[in-house]
Design a protein that fits this description.
The protein is mostly helical and 198 residues long. Helices cover 67% and strands 0% of the residues. The longest helix is centred in the C-terminal third of the chain and has 29 residues. It is globular and about 50 Å long.
Length: 198
């Protein structure tokens, strides 16, 4: 029962993540409450953080059911993959304004004032934050080997195509042809190891 509840909790979290970040909802709220809309991203970040904290607390009480017994190699590989995920996320975070991203700067919303970042790690993949998160969850599963860790990883993998679809839809609505060109040049998730010669 607790495992089903965890799947439901992740489903709710990811659904709200996409629904609350939708451009259409943002336009409606901006038209309805123009003076308060500048706080939307901060309220959204606080709400998401509370939901995520609830999932973490719930995860503590999941029964320890092992899919496999993690050995030395599995744990080593897990720590390496998770560390790589953290490094990717930190590299990506350095290139964007985290204050605007989380809504701590209400005078500048991410939709209207942000520039399209296509340098650094964003010149190799379009969604490094998602890739880093996938690395962390995969690493955790390899280290823990539990059903709970698999649920976290499985729910993320199931959500990623949906989340990326809606996020890119929003980015196209904000940046237009610039983002469409970027989509053609840069892969979604895994970098190209060679470039075509012109």
């Amino acid at each position: 029962m607790s495992n089903i509840l965890m799947v439901f909790s992740w489903g709710l979290f990811y659904f709200l993540h996409s629904a609350l970040a939708a451009s259409k909802l943002k336009r409606i709220l901006e038209a309805k409450w123009p003076n308060h809309y500048k706080w939307y991203r901060l309220i959204y970040s606080i709400f998401s953080s509370i939901l995520f904290l609830g999932i973490l607390i719930q995860a503590i009480y999941l029964p320890l059911e092992y899919i496999f017994s993690p050995g030395r190699f599995s744990q080593y590989a897990g720590y390496m993959v998770a560390t790589a995920g953290v490094v990717i996320m930190l590299r990506a975070a350095r290139q964007i304004s985290m204050g605007s991203f989380f809504g701590f700067r209400p005078d500048s919303t991410a939709d209207s004032s942000s520039e399209l970042v296509i340098s650094g790690i964003y010149s190799q993949i379009r969604h490094p934050l998602y890739l880093g998160l996938l690395g962390i969850f995969l690493g955790y599963f390899l280290v823990a080997g539990t059903v709970g860790a698999l649920i976290h990883l499985g729910c993320l993998i199931a959500y990623l195509p949906i989340g990326i679809y809606f996020e890119e839809k929003n980015l196209v609505s904000v940046f237009g042809e610039s983002y469409r060109d970027y989509q053609k040049e840069v892969p979604t998730f895994f970098p190209k190891f060679h470039k075509k010669r012109s």
